[in-house]
Design brief:
Shape: globular
Radius of gyration: 15 Å
Helix content: under 10%
Strand content: 35-45%
Distance between the termini: 30 Å
Number of strands: 10
Organism: Nitrosospira multiformis (strain ATCC 25196 / NCIMB 11849 / C 71)
Number of helices: 0
Largest sheet: 6 strands, antiparallel
Structural class: mainly beta
Protein name: Threonine dehydratase
Length: 120
């Protein structure tokens, strides 16, 4: 059974249910909780999982912030798939969750793309 009101992309072939006990980081998103899983923001919805992204907004802009003092990792740390921080889809790109903020690798610095609230 599908939900005709669901217009977001679905994550197919998901192997486990997401929830407070699943072990993945919960992120407050709009009026619900999504779960970070392998660079995806999953929202359990009925009998399926929707793919969500953090929208580009005033709270979560995609501005260049070369003066941003990165806290939560060593000087010279470069974000990427193996950096140890969780990947978070933001707009049309990937950011990394560091100390409750979205960090985006850009040239020789990290841009601050705003706060996110983790849950659980």
């Amino acid at each position: 059974m599908t939900n005709s009101n669901c217009i977001l992309p679905r994550h197919e072939n998901h192997t486990h249910p997401h929830g407070p006990e699943c072990g993945h980081t919960g992120v407050a998103h709009d009026d619900h909780v999504c779960y970070l899983h392998d660079g995806h923001l999953h929202y359990p919805h009925g009998n399926h999982i929707d793919e969500h992204v953090i929208d580009v907004s005033e709270i979560n802009p995609q501005n260049c912030t070369p003066g941003h003092e990165c806290e939560g990792h060593a000087q010279g740390h470069v974000h990427g798939p193996e950096c140890g921080h969780e990947a978070v889809p933001h707009g049309d790109h990937m950011d990394y969750l560091v100390g409750g903020h979205l960090h985006h690798p850009h040239d020789d610095h990290c841009d601050d793309h705003g706060p996110v609230k983790t849950v659980g």
